[in-house]
């Protein structure tokens, strides 16, 4: 029991170290992209990164759950209800900046809640990106097969 506790402790501490490093380097890279966008007036790379980076952090946070599920026997299932109710709206909110800044001929008035999401800053996009990335591994379940 003590060995299992110490093994989990080192795994979680190692995972925390990886998360901190990814977070620090990601923020530094995002700052670099924003400075480049100010110099060149090319916003695409900065916007794409600001949308995808929170999703990637969410995926990393959910990765521990996937590793725990891989140890268990059983059949893989996807909770489609959870994915549809939480995943689709959070994906939409996190992708609104990409839709708005894309070359598509749409205005934010054409998008559902577009004006509110575009004018409210980056907080909704960041939170929803984290939720969506985290949810990707939390909708996966392992059902034990009884015979």
Can you offer a commentary on this structure?
The protein is mostly helical and 147 residues long. 15% of the residues are buried. The chain is built from 5 helices and 2 strands; from the N terminus they run ααβαααβ. It starts with a helix and ends with a strand. Helix 2 (44-71) packs parallel to helix 5. Strands 1-2 form a two-stranded antiparallel ribbon. Helices cover 76% and strands 5% of the residues.
Figure out the total of helices.
Answer: 5
> How much β-strand is present in the residues?
5-15%
**Helical content (DSSP H or I, runs of 4+):** over 70%
What does the average pLDDT come to? 82
Order of helices and strands: HHEHHHE
By secondary-structure content and strand pairing, the structural class works out as: mainly alpha
List the strand order in the largest sheet. Answer: 1-2
Topology readout:
Elements: H1 2-40, H2 44-71, E1 75-78, H3 80-101, H4 114-119, H5 123-138, E2 140-143
Antiparallel strand pairs: 1-2
Helix pairs in contact: 1-2, 2-3, 2-5, 3-5
In short:
With about 150 residues, the protein is mainly alpha-helical. It has helices spanning about 1-40, 45-70, 80-100, 115-120, 125-140, and strands at about 75-80, 140-145.
Fill in the keyword field for this structure:
147 residues; mainly alpha; two-stranded antiparallel ribbon; 2 strands; 76% helix; 5% strand; flat
């Amino acid at each position: 029991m003590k060995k299992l506790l110490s093994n989990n402790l080192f795994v979680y501490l190692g995972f925390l170290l990886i998360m901190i490093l990814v977070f620090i380097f990601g923020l530094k890279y995002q700052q670099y992209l924003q400075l480049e966008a100010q110099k060149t007036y090319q916003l695409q790379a900065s916007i794409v990164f600001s949308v995808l980076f929170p999703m990637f952090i969410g995926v990393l946070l959910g990765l521990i759950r996937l590793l725990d599920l891989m140890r268990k026997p059983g059949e893989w299932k996807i909770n489609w209800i959870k994915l549809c109710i939480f995943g689709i709206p959070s994906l939409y909110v996190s992708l609104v900046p990409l839709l708005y800044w894309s070359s598509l001929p749409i205005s934010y008035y054409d998008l559902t809640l577009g004006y509110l999401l575009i004018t409210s800053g980056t907080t909704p996009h960041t939170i929803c990106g984290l939720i969506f990335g985290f949810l990707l591994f939390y909708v996966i379940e392992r059902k034990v097969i009884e015979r």
